[in-house]
Design brief:
heterodimer, A: five-stranded parallel β-sheet, 21 strands, globular, B: alpha+beta, Ubiquitin-like (UB roll), 2 domains, 10 helices, 2Fe-2S (chain B), Succinate dehydrogenase and fumarate reductase iron-sulfur protein (chain B)
Chain lengths: 651, 256
């Protein structure tokens, strides 16, 4: 925390070009679950590691994950195993997922959860003392390790405390807590540096002082989370400005699946100031039901053909499932999130919404008050304090909110490395794992599995360099300073307030590239984004560089803009509806699109270029996990030649 | 339904500062943080404030509102009369960086001084077995969102800079209690709580409990039980004898 001390000593002039320089083996950008797990691994591999956090250490967006961490431990239902989890994940993503990532994730998640216990995590328990697991949308068996409805907080705190424990070990050995792993909190990275095509370092500023900082490092792990702040109604915090996505693009890496955005079905809709704040899926997992203004449990009307065999068709069967899941099908409230979000959207559009434009989510008539307080304490607290609603007595009003981006940096599944040597990505800012739609609970497990893999991948990459580290090119470093200072020089030329431009961007994306999309609207969005790009280049800020939110936003805006262009371009290109991408003009899922990935790369400073790429065909042993009948709903005929049914017929 | 409120916000840095008056529009259902954001978007563009989740889950937007330590995101505007002046100032116990943002590094320093979870020897990952009733005591303390309102309000350090060296503060004494009550933690923590982290400074006035936005019973469930364990330990003749015989001998069972 020594930069805090410099905060008090130095008051930087606006145009001060001085840069503090550090050398590390691995720099992790982002201090949420993925970043912290990556850093722990890099440090375990003996690498000097820096963690860069846009907020204070421990405040990451991971705390917003409520429901749990999916891992097929089989503690509650012994029938669960990695194959079932893999199958659910692929099904949830409509088979567009990178199957290798889904495989690694399903196989490794239990070990990552158990490891958290050795770091001190305290999950809720089963009667025999094991980690308890709860039901969630799209998961066949109770699978989510949880702590009430604050699982994300438990994960972030546990990882934070593990890092402290590593620092304590280092202190014993070297007398310096920060000798091998140091957290640079309230620090934002604005540029990555390359030399000879490989990563050489990165540049940014300390938010508290505005002082510039440069890290010379051969390996960088991006773990910056998502992009929700480009939308007006979102569950995401101010940090979610697509920094990692944009940094990767500018460094020459590619993004995939950017058309797939998850609108979580249940965000708060009232009062206006909290619109978008998340209402955990656990409410439904624990028995909560969705009703429209006519009192009807409408989800029974929205079971898509591909899910017909898996979900209950009557309220009676659905209710029996909670106590007898082996002999009944699950309630349709627990369909994957994309399905539920679209259904709510349709009900509201059809005039069957609540007074504040949502639908009712009711747990008060389903569980006893004490049970609700025990299982959903933070939801009870949130509604009581922010909306004057007591969820033990009355229903909540909920509606879709922009929650998660499935798209992200295209990486090697095993190591997490992008196409830029030395540049890695894990967690929400990487792409592929969740396909077109992420299942609830698969995010926390994703963080742990691929955070660790990136830490390992980065360490091995550094070892492979054998000391020949690319050096930052000084002219690049100077250009980064110029770019960061631009909003101050624009001020003298009468540029706009960045808040105003930001609101315009959010409105554009929300209205024109939102939950239901049309070609003409997206074309209009792309035109508007071009205009916003011009305005973003000349936004101007008031004040100086010390903790100036105006300046921070001016710099973040560049990233939000670039990412929004990726979303709009990819969404316009994909002429089908699948997962987190719904086209009003192409309402049906099309098997010919399943094997196509839309790849984006940077074209200059604030534009992107889109190309199509074929998915790698799934390994036959993984295909065999599914029945042929199910695969036929998603795949074209010629893709299924390797399936056991086909082989059997030939033999 | 909207009205204009009278806000008075502290602006300045570590060297100088003053309360600045702002008229601010308030709409139905809004919280103090909404108003601060509106000021940023209108007449105080460089007003510094920390915030993240805006849902009471991250503990970033701690400040003092009409003198009370609160989370700005959980303080509803309808708790004030429309003609009431709403005064917003930074946390008093920590040095100001700018406007409403303070240097909270004291807390990170203290966090690092508390020995971490000590895993039980010979228990493999996946083999941890604990009963729900046993984990619940520590789970209550792990609800902590580290907003530092308790650290800010505790009178041991609030106006006593000189006590900061010796006193970990309620949040970190609670962390010791949490680890002490963890069913599988293998370290001995009670003596150090008193001797190294300043448990004795706490005279259970419950100010920390009162300001906790998570409603954790810090004093009743963490600090008092920890004090009792320390006292039991000190005056238990068997423990005294054991310590004599084995010098710093660890008791076979954690005293719980």
């Amino acid at each position: 925390m020594s930069e805090m001390t410099s905060a008090q000593q130095q008051n930087h002039a606006v145009d001060d070009r001085d840069v503090e320089i550090h050398d590390y083996d691995v720099v992790v950008i982002g201090a949420g679950g993925a970043g912290l797990r990556a850093a722990i691994e890099a440090r375990a591999q003996g690498k000097r590691t820096a963690i860069i956090s846009k907020s204070l250490f421990g405040k990451a967006h991971t705390v917003m994950a409520e429901g749990g961490c999916a891992a097929a431990m089989g503690n509650v239902n012994p029938n669960d195993n990695w194959r079932v989890h893999f199958g659910d994940t692929m099904r949830g993503g409509k088979f567009l997922n990178n199957w290798r990532m889904a495989e690694l994730h399903a196989k490794e998640a239990p070990d990552r959860v158990w490891e958290m216990e050795t770091y001190g995590a305290l999950f809720d328990r089963t009667k025999d003392g094991k980690i308890s697991q709860r039901n969630f949308g799209g998961h066949t068996y109770p699978r989510l390790a949880h702590v009430g409805d604050r699982t994300g907080l438990e994960l972030i705190r546990t990882l934070q405390q593990k890092i402290v424990s590593l620092q304590q070990e280092d202190f014993k050995a070297t007398g310096d807590y920060e000798s091998n792993i140091r957290v640079f909190h309230e620090t934002t990275i604005t540029d990555l540096f390359k030399a000879d095509g490989a990563i050489a370092g990165c540049f940014g500023y300390f938010r508290s002082t505005g002082r510039f900082v440069r890290f010379n490092a051969p390996a960088i792990v991006l773990a910056t989370g998502g992009v929700g702040k480009s939308y007006s109604v979102t569950s995401n915090s101010w940090e979610y400005t697509g920094d990692g996505h944009a940094l990767a693009l500018r460094a020459g890496a590619t993004l995939i699946n950017m058309e797939f955005l998850q609108f979580h079905p249940t965000g708060m809709v009232w009062p206006p100031s909290v619109k978008g704040i998340l209402v955990t899926e656990s409410v439904r997992g624990d028995g909560g039901v969705l009703r429209n203004s006519e009192g009807k449990r409408f989800m029974f009307d929205y079971i898509a053909d591909v899910f017909k065999d898996l979900y209950a068709t009557s309220e009676e069967e659905a209710d029996r499932w909670y106590t007898d899941p082996d002999n009944n099908r699950r309630p349709p409230e627990l369909l994957p999130r994309d399905e539920v979000a679209r259904a709510i959207n349709s009900e509201v559009k059809a005039g069957r919404g609540t007074p504040h434009g949502g639908v009712f989510l009711d747990v008060s008539t389903r569980l006893k008050p004490e049970e609700i307080l025990k299982r959903l304490p933070s939801m009870h607290h949130q509604f009581k304090e922010l909306a004057d609603v007591d969820i033990t007595k009355e229903p909540m009003e909920v509606g879709p909110t922009c929650h998660y981006v499935m798209g992200g940096v295209e990486v090697d599944p095993d190591t997490g490395m992008s196409r830029v040597p030395g540049l890695f990505a894990a967690g929400e800012c990487s792409g592929g794992m969740h396909g077109s739609n992420r299942l609830g609970g698969n995010s926390l497990s994703d963080l742990l599995v691929f955070g660790r893999r990136c830490g390992l991948g980065a360490s091995e990459y550094v070892d492979g360099l054998a000391g020949r580290r690319p050096a930052v090119i000084e002219s690049d470093a100077e250009a980064a300073v110029d770019r960061a200072l631009l909003p101050f020089s624009s001020a003298t030329e009468g540029g706009e307030n960045p808040f105003v431009v930001h609101l315009e961007l959010q409105k554009t994306m929300h209205e024109l590239v939102g939950i239901i999309r049309k070609a003409d609207e997206m074309e209009m969005a792309l035109k508007k984004l071009e205009d916003i790009a011009t305005r973003t280049r000349t936004v101007a800020v008031e004040g100086d560089r010390k903790f100036n939110p105006n300046w921070h936003l001016a710099l973040d805006l560049r990233n939000m803009l670039l990412v929004s262009m990726c979303v709009a371009k990819a969404a316009l290109e994909r002429q089908e509806s699948r997962g987190g991408h719904t086209r009003d003009d192409f309402p049906v899922m099309d098997a010919d699109w399943r094997h196509v990935l839309l790849v984006l790369e940077a074209l200059g400073e604030d534009n992107v270029e889109l190309t199509r790429k074929e998915q790698i065909p799934m390994r036959p042993d993984l295909l065999d996990i599914f029945e042929m009948d199910e695969l036929k709903k998603y795949f074209t005929g010629e893709e299924l030649g390797g399936h056991r049914a086909d082989q059997g017929e030939r033999a | 339904m909207s009205y204009w409120a009278h806000f008075r916000v502290w602006r300045g840095d570590s060297e100088k500062g003053e309360l600045v008056d702002y008229p601010a529009e308030v709409n139905e259902g809004e919280v103090v943080l909404d108003i601060i954001h509106r000021l940023q978007q209108t007449e105080a563009q460089d007003l510094a404030v920390r915030w993240n989740c805006k849902a009471g889950k991250c503990g970033s937007c701690s400040m003092e509102i009409n003198g009370r330590p609160r989370l700005a995101c959980m303080t509803r505007m309808n708790t004030f009369a429309e003609d009431e002046v709403v005064t917003v100032t930074p946390l008093r116990t920590f040095p100001v960086i700018r406007d409403l943002v303070t240097d909270v590094s004291f807390n990170y320093t203290k966090a690092r001084e508390i020995p971490s979870f000590a895993p039980p020897e010979g228990v493999e990952p996946g083999e941890y077995r604990m009963q729900q009733v046993d984990v619940e005591r520590s789970q209550e303390f792990r609800k902590c969102i580290e907003c530092y309102l308790c650290q800010n309000t505790c009178h041991v350090v609030r106006d006593h800079e000189e006590n900061k060296e010796a006193f970990a503060g309620p949040r970190y004494l609670m962390r010791i209690a949490e680890l002490d009550m963890h069913p599988l933690d293998s370290a001995d923590r009670q003596t150090a709580a008193q001797d190294e982290h300043g448990l004795g400074y706490c005279n259970i006035t419950k100010c920390c409990t009162e300001v906790c936005p998570e409603h954790i019973k810090i004093t009743d469930n963490a600090l008092i039980p920890l004090k009792e364990r320390v006292v039991d330990r000190k005056y238990d003749p068997v423990v005294w004898l054991g310590n004599k015989l084995f010098r710093r001998g660890e008791p076979a069972n954690k005293n719980r």
